Amino acid sequence: MTAHVAPRIPRNPESGFSPAPARPGFLARHGLTLAVLALVAAAHIGAWWAINRPVAVPDFRGQVNGLAFAPYQRGQGAEGGPTPTPEQIEGDLRKVAPMTRHIRTYSAHGGMERIPDIAWSTGLDLKITLGSWLDKRLDRNAAEIRRLIQIARESRNVERVLVGNEAVLRGDITPAQMVGYIQQVRRQVRQPVSTAEPWHVWMDHPELGDAVDYITIHLLPYWEGLPVDDALRFIMEKFDAVQARFPGKKVVIGEVGWPSDGVAQGAARASRVNQALFLRSFFNIAEQRGLDYFVMEAFDQPWKVSFEGRAAGHWGMYDLDRHQKWPLVGSVQETPAWFGWAFGASLIASLATFFFLARRPDIRWQGKLMLAGLSQGFVALGTCVVLAMSETYMSATAGVVWTLLVFGQVLLLGLLLSDGFELAETLYGRVSKRRWPALPAPDGTALPKVSIHLPICNEPPHMVRETLDALAELDYPDFEVLVIDNNTTDPALWEPVAEHCARLGARFRFYHLGKWPGFKGGALNFALRETAPDAAVVGVIDSDYLVRPDWLRRMAPFFNRPEVGFTQSPQDYRDGNGGLFKRLMFWEYAGFFKAGMVTRNERNAIIQHGTMTLIRKSALEGAGGWAEWCICEDSELGLKLMRQGWEAVYCPDSMGRGVMPDDFSAYRKQRHRWAFGAVQIVKHHWKALLNPFDRSLTQGQRFHFVMGWFPWLGDALGLAFVVGGLVWSIGLTLIPLTRIHKTVEIFGHEFATEGLRTALVSVGLSDEFPITLFMIPSLALFAFKFAQIWLLYRARVSCGPMDRLGAALGGLALSHTIGKAVWQGFWKKRAHFARTPKMENAPALVQGLMTARQEAVFMLLLWLAAAGVTLAHRGGTWEAILWTVILLVQSIPYLAAVSMALIAAMPAKVAAVLPGAVPAQSSAGTVVARSEVQ
């Protein structure tokens, strides 16, 4: 086969056939764009300023009474691993010494037992309340008590002793056991002895108060779910209640504080400003009342995050790098370095928007403003996510998860920008560079010979005869029709077609191949070899298409231009009035051909389809024919031809109409094939599509092919997010319920919820919601996509509001199928060539539901998850409400799929004839067909 290469003539690499004319200066072309970008960027930075304005907080000019002290550095923790060195402990002691004269510790092992000696030897005037850690391990507890007694007796700066920390609250130690430990220690040390528990434990177990020398209570209103404005009143009420319960005994506040970051607990919001507001207000009241307290805590402790949640790592007055989070006097900002983040985000968004708009300076100011606003808003959200990530302590595993989530946000940004650009270009563009009227060539005009290839497989003879009759009516001087039947075993199907070709004359040739490799691509390659030598153009149509008589006379003249490699007309359908299901599909298909293909044509980046296409034979031969390895051989050929430098022409006029799938199962199989084939093409041509140094495609072509298929990757990510959201919701539902109920009944047996909770956490489940910033973009993108469909259809597709909604329903119903196809395409090389059944009797209702059984299961699971999260969290936080909304939004595509399946199962009622549609019944009678739709 002789190779042919497209002639390389000068051209505008983005859109035109001819060299670009001289253009005006940069400012003349882009002045309006730059002005809009500057305006939106200023508004963006202004929003950052409004959110991060300095907040007036009561000043505190005294000295903090005490700090809970745990000198763990990055990568260290009490749960194992490396422990702080003496030098690190000394550095932390010197850091806190100017702020306070008192610290408390939590254990007498793991290097913590050295704190009193290091503080004394360095000459720091620090008094130490010496702590110990007790749990269910009795042997370990005995060793801990021995070390506690030894250190207390040998140290001159230990002023008090604490036996255990919240051991009774956790259930590790019974009150009676704790009394025994306290009595053991009191007999052997000179310092006052106590244990540390939340305020309510002391109220519930007065025997503890009788056993200690002083009462040590924890007051942490954040865990009570209180708003910060009520927190101070709450803790003073509880302090006074405990003091009244144990008159004559000193009450020490062992822990008091507020986290600077973390998920909300009820009405409690963890933030830097709230931490400063609570603590500085408390310091002033504590100084007035002479309270003895320890702030929870000196330094952030990220090692606690894995078992106490994200907030547990952010209670410190200093962060992990030993930087003070806020001063004791003056105003406080939530993000002190906000301007750098805001400026960087605005710059990235502006450059990205300019990259798009520079290619279409003709877009009116409304479109520029819309795209700039979308870009700035989405980049701002992404920047906030990265900012939150930079301030969040995480394990290596959590870091990987966050990085993947951020990568997902970047992909969403790319999708938003490409969709926004398409919308702006469609609604507000003023110049069309690649639209030419497809006017019929006058009689006497020299026209190339066309060889029309019609592949069939197990097609009903009546339908194929209709297609052949329409081809016989073509108003064109020189053409041939090659009918290639492959893999049809029943002679009753192919023999009538062969006979009909014989009756139509010498122009029509029939080939029965029997068992033949390569599916449709193999049949078309056979036809290419049998094509008349003097044919210059090859046409391909599907077996159900009725072409207009002037199809060739209108499209073939484009090949008089030597740079044209192929032409394409829309896929259109003649059975859109065959019931509601058909009507929904009709308008869902129409959006791509009336809007998407028109926009892609501006940059010579259309998708070639296996019907209503004409191809220069030399270009087809030069490309090696049709790809038999690819399930979408037509789209692959179009991309290959563009890589070889050929131009394409898209004419949006309908020149032939076929029939649509008859049921939802067929509708899904068709879209599954398209999506799987797209992944095959991307894998095969990835260098041309993704490597910026590969110049075989123009920038505009690469943009449209990558971003045109990107929404299908979004469906794949959406499927992954649905599965992940369902798994996450198990933890969000069950773990909170295990804290409410002590036992749970499963299959008639009682189980302790503590064990269930431990098991859930051990497999990576959590009762913490992802940060709000991760949830908002997905909702925003869903809303934008719906608005985009609505506006594009209103601008380009001649249908009413209900048909727009129907088109959106049809598209959403395929999301799950597309997502599966994309994932399968990543891991599989080949897929079964699923042919699309058409014009069959509608299935029964049960059959309709069965076709969407996967989607129905996912829909019910998402609804159950939403109900479970609502029940477990009672809508107490914005995170809980937002997560529930996300689950319900995720269920919409599945609801759409179930709805489409039910609609397809309904008896068809002939509706009003759609614009451009013709009745499905033709002169040959009603056809029952199984045909391929590309």
Describe what this molecule looks like in 3D.
The model is unreliable at 8-18, 740-744, 833-840 and 917-934 (pLDDT under 50). α15 (461-472) packs parallel to α16 (491-504) and α29 (845-851) crosses α31. The protein has 934 residues and is an alpha/beta fold. α15 (461-472) links the parallel β9 and β10 (479-486). The protein starts with 25 loop residues before the first helix and ends with a strand. The protein has an eight-stranded parallel sheet. The protein has a seven-stranded mixed sheet with strand order 11-10-9-12-16-14-17, sandwiched between helices. The protein has a three-stranded mixed sheet with strand order 13-18-15. The radius of gyration is 36 Å and the shape is elongated.
What's the structural blueprint in terms of helices and strands?
Layout: H1 26-51, E1 67-68, H2 86-96, E2 102-104, H3 115-121, E3 127-130, H4 138-154, E4 158-165, H5 167-170, H6 175-186, E5 193-198, H7 199-204, H8 206-211, E6 215-219, H9 228-245, E7 251-256, H10 272-289, E8 293-295, H11 305-308, H12 338-357, H13 365-390, H14 396-428, E9 450-456, H15 461-472, E10 479-486, H16 491-504, E11 508-514, H17 519-530, E12 537-540, E13 546-547, H18 551-555, E14 564-568, E15 572-573, H19 580-601, E16 613-616, H20 617-622, H21 633-643, E17 647-650, E18 656-658, H22 664-684, H23 686-690, H24 699-740, E19 743-746, E20 749-752, H25 753-762, H26 772-796, H27 801-813, H28 815-827, E21 836-838, H29 845-851, H30 853-873, H31 878-905, E22 929-931
Parallel strand pairs: 1-2, 2-3, 3-4, 4-5, 5-6, 6-7, 7-8, 9-10, 9-12, 10-11, 14-17, 15-18
Antiparallel strand pairs: 12-16, 13-18, 14-16, 19-20, 21-22
Helix pairs in contact: 1-12, 1-13, 9-10, 12-13, 13-14, 13-26, 14-24, 14-26, 15-16, 19-27, 22-28, 24-25, 24-28, 24-30, 26-27, 26-31, 27-31, 29-31, 30-31
